[in-house]
Automatic annotation (TrEMBL):
Residues forming coiled coils: none
Cellular component aspect of the GO annotation: kinetochore; nucleus
Lineage: Eukaryota, Metazoa, Chordata, Cephalochordata, Leptocardii
Keywords: Centromere, Chromosome, Nucleus
Organism per entry: Branchiostoma floridae (Florida lancelet)
InterPro entries in alphabetical order: CENP-I
Homology family: Belongs to the CENP-I/CTF3 family.
Main location: nucleus
Protein name: Centromere protein I-like
Gene assigned in the entry: LOC118427892
Biased composition (Low complexity): 322-343
Region: Disordered, residue numbers: 321-343
Length: 343
């Protein structure tokens, strides 16, 4: 194939938009072949280029995945039908080899996931690179429901936490929406008849997903970041001595809905509108955060285009009868992944 041969001598500058556009239309191949001829040249360019080029490559890989699941996956299934004697829907016959196409797509998703992790670390969580990273995973969390592809994949923990603790409120809202999308993907897959071929739905991936969910719930809603909970895999699992040494009062509130650095501006505006005139506006301590108060605040965030946060809270939080945040508990791991309903 001419494009594959050219990529080995391409300097990464000449006709870059056109070359990347051609790559997005590549046929579905076994992953090892795709990696050797397409992904490896892109990887070298990715890690030796500035952030703008990295974003172009991520956009290219996102469109490559979209082409694989919307066009090539249907073509692959049609080829399988032809092998079984079913008439072809194509006007012209297409020669196609048989290989585990679903596994190839899964390995492509895992490859881009790892690429995003290293790229974000290399660029110190650059906002534009984070935007394209989340754009890729917004597509990934639609594969089952939109394209009928039996593949579910949640972003790896480093991506979730980098987005969750970002200073951009839209980034926080988007990662919350992505986590909700993954849950919907799992629920949708479990409601369908068992399939011979499915990828990504493993106990390990579910466990990692639930660890992230518990951490986000503890930080945003329950005001229990850095608490000594039972979740050994928590990112907040810090020795008590270290927490005390920090000397920060109410450290568990640091990433709450009102105090999260990305949401403080929205909290200030909301409190200005909701509190009586002349009331001093200060960070909201846990004792003053009633469920009704925070519900109104979530509605305000939704009106500002941050609907992902409210969607996350409504999907994963069971609000108790008491008005204090401590009475609100996140869905357990088993209920989140097995039944798809709140406890």
């Amino acid at each position: 194939m001419f494009l594959w041969e050219y990529l080995f001598t391409w300097n990464g500058l000449d006709h870059r938009p056109q070359i990347l556009q051609l790559i997005t239309r590549s046929r579905l191949h076994p992953f090892q072949r795709l990696n050797d001829y397409v992904l490896e040249p892109l990887r070298r360019l990715f890690f030796t280029s500035k952030v703008h080029c990295k974003c172009q490559i991520l956009a290219c890989l996102t469109e490559l995945l979209r082409n694989c699941v919307s066009v090539e996956w249907a073509r692959y299934k049609e080829t399988q039908s032809n092998e079984e004697g079913t008439s072809s829907l194509s006007l012209f016959p297409v020669d196609s080899e048989m290989f585990p196409a679903l596994q190839s797509i899964q390995e492509l998703v895992l490859y881009v996931d790892r690429l995003c992790v290293v790229g974000l670390q290399q660029e110190d969580g650059h906002a534009m690179l984070m935007h394209y990273t989340l754009g890729f995973f917004e597509l990934v969390t639609q594969l089952q429901r939109r394209f009928d592809l039996p593949l579910v994949h949640a972003p790896s923990a480093p991506i979730v936490y980098m987005a969750m603790f970002d200073t951009n409120a839209l980034t926080v809202a988007r990662i919350c929406a992505i986590m909700c999308g993954f849950r919907q993907e799992v629920t949708s897959l479990k409601q369908k008849p068992p399939q011979e071929e499915s990828c990504g739905f493993t106990s390990s991936s579910i466990r990692n997903f639930n660890n992230c969910i518990l951490d986000i719930c503890d930080a945003l809603w329950r005001c229990k970041a850095f608490s000594s909970g039972k979740n050994e895999a928590s990112i907040f699992k810090v020795p008590r001595a270290v927490v005390k040494q920090a000397g920060i009062d109410s450290i568990g509130d640091s990433f709450s809905l009102y105090n999260h650095i990305a949401l403080q501006g929205f909290a200030h505006t909301f409190l200005q509108k909701s509190l009586p005139p002349g009331t001093p506006i200060t960070p909201r301590p846990r004792s003053r955060q009633s469920t009704l108060d925070r519900s109104s605040y979530l509605d305000f965030l939704t009106s500002q285009g941050l609907e992902g946060i409210q969607g996350f809270i409504s999907s994963f939080i069971k609000v108790g009868k008491s008005s204090t945040p401590c009475s609100s508990a996140p869905s357990t791991a088993s209920s989140t992944t097995t039944t798809g309903s709140r406890t």
